[in-house]
Specification:
This protein has 119 residues and is an all-beta fold. Helix content is 0%, strand content 46%. The strands form two sheets. The chain has a six-stranded mixed beta sheet, with no helix packed on it. Strands 1-3-8-7 form a four-stranded antiparallel beta sheet, with no helix packed on it.
Length: 119
């Protein structure tokens, strides 16, 4: 099973950018789809973005046009590039790996990385 560690979060002003990383252990990262999710206090967990093994991507409606997901199978890493950040993007961001993007909602996630968008 793939173990994942998220990083790259921080405090950023509205309109700013961050790039999150999701680093996987093991040698089978390339056979898994990766999903990014976020969880804000008082809100339900939300799907943010996902990428398949063939680099097809999906995005949640609230981030389309602002976020971009990618992966580097040589580095065993998936990325979430977040541009034009808004205060409502504030949340803990998690990544999960599974055979399909849809199945990543049930994957084992890492500890998450906090993203705070505030002036």
């Amino acid at each position: 099973q793939v173990q994942l560690v998220e990083s790259g979060g921080g405090l950023v002003q509205p309109g700013g950018s961050l790039r999150l990383s999701c680093v996987a252990s093991g040698t089978y990262f390339r056979i898994y789809a990766v999903g990014w999710y976020r969880h804000a206090p008082g809100k339900q967990r939300e799907f943010v973005a996902g990428i398949t093994t063939t680099h097809k991507t999906e995005y949640g409606d609230s981030v389309k046009g602002r976020f971009s997901v990618s992966r580097d199978d040589v580095e065993n890493t998936a990325y979430l590039q977040m541009n034009n950040l808004k205060p409502e993007d504030t949340a803990v961001y998690y990544c999960g790996a599974a055979p399909t993007i849809g199945a990543t909602r049930w994957a084992n996630w890492g500890q998450g990385t906090q993203v705070t968008v505030s002036s």
